[in-house]
């Protein structure tokens, strides 16, 4: 059976999984719109993939965008206030990839990487540089 689950996974995935396990999950689920707290976003389970099949790792985004781009509906759904991960979260995600043996490039695929330039320049990038020097 196919399912369509809308809204952010941090908010929708657990209730969907619980309904699915109980056998009461409809094929279309749209829970009340709620912004995810990015400080609770888990580290991806990188160990589930075969890293040998990749030439570059994609780092998860560090923020959800606040802008109103014509090609995107994120702000209409979630508002214009940027939500970001902490420098500690970004480093923990990089450390997880590294601890699994990855020594190649890591590509920050963030559709709005510079959306919060202040935090990026003062917290995130200095933490990444320091981590790389260890």
Structure description:
The chain has 2 domains: 1-34, no CATH class; 37-133, no CATH class. The model has no long low-confidence stretch (mean pLDDT 79). By secondary structure, it is of the alpha/beta class. Helix 1 (9-22) links the parallel strand 1 and strand 2 (28-30). The termini are far apart. The chain has a two-stranded parallel sheet with strand order 1-2. The protein has helices spanning 9-22, 74-78, 87-99, 117-133, and strands at residues 4-6, 28-30, 56-59, 63-64, 83-84, 105-108. The longest helix has 17 residues, at 117-133.
Strand order of the largest sheet: 1-2
List unreliable stretches of 5+ residues: none
- N-to-C series of helices and strands: EHEEEHEHEH
Task: Count the E strands.
Answer: 6
Distance between the termini: 48 Å
Question: What's the tally of helices?
Answer: 4
Mean pLDDT reading? 79
Question: Could you say how many structural domains there are in total?
Answer: 2
From the helix content, strand content and strand pairing, which structural class follows? alpha/beta
Helix proportion: 25-40%
Give the biggest beta sheet.
2 strands, parallel
Strand content: 5-15%
Q: What is the radius of gyration?
A: 17 Å
Q: What is the general shape? A: globular
